[in-house]
Amino acid sequence: MSASPFHDLKLEKLFPPSKALLVEAAPPRPAVEERRLFIVDEDGGHRPQPLAQGPFDSLHGGVIGGLLANKAEALAAEHGLGTPIAAHIQFLRPIKAEHRLTATAEIAVPGRRLNLVDAFIEADDGLRAEARFTFARDLPAPVPVEQAPAPALIHPDHLPEIVPPLMPPDPWFKDALEWRSDGTTVWMRPRVELGPPGHILPRIIATADWAAGISRPDGWSRPKVMGFPNSAITINLWRRPVGEWIGLTPSSRWNAGGFGLAQGAISDEAGDLGHAVLPVILLPFPERQKSAPTA
């Protein structure tokens, strides 16, 4: 039996310990005053809030992808373009908390069945992120389709919540999601509004973008790289999600060339839902300065 991909996740204790091991609970975090990812100004500009922050000095990829997806899905709903079945999001430059953002979407390729929508995020100094979304209009399948029975699983409501004993002092995007796990799949559902109720992609992107961080190959106890940001994320879905929980079963591979790949199976309470792939760039720790020789 192969080891769990999370067996070395020790620093943050992302998964709860076994019942035989007692761990002191983390102190309660002060209440988050602002429960929004963005404040939207009258002219449509978006100002990031603390919950939009990622683990580094920039917004989380799940937040950026969610904003792009919300613009695309709103446009698709307005024109009856169908159900989102694919997304490719490219993070061009870091987006900082002080940036004021303009997000737009446009129909790139209209079609009878498939429709492509492009979305963009700009700051004052230019383009920061872009995405292409594929929408498909529903039509009856030309051949009979037998749906596989839903797998027997413990509903996420009945799984232990992941409460890490070590937390950053300030709120960030992880606090915008509720986390639960059975030790193999991580389940997430939003604690704050990620988009209009009818939108599909924002909460899927919010979950899938954690694939690299959850499954880092070097482990959390003795990390060999300082960071591993994903330059993009690609998601493919074969049906609409069911329920409010999204599951992620991730894995990662790195190579000596300084880059790698994270991926994750996406699921919901009805079973398999789709897949995500994230190319990652490995960032080395800064070299320590050698002490000057003493006389």
Automatic annotation (TrEMBL):
Q: Which domain of life is it from?
A: Bacteria
Which InterPro entries does its entry note? Answer: ACOT8-like_C, Acyl-CoA_hotdog, HotDog_dom_sf, TesB_ACOT8-like_N
**Residue span, Acyl-CoA thioesterase-like N-terminal HotDog domain:** 57-135
- Acyl-CoA thioesterase-like C-terminal domain: from which residue to which, for each copy? 172-273
Matches recorded under SUPFAM superfamilies: Thioesterase/thiol ester dehydrase-isomerase (SSF54637)
Locate the transmembrane regions by residue number: none
Protein name as it appears in the record:
Thioesterase family protein
UniProt source species: Zavarzinia compransoris
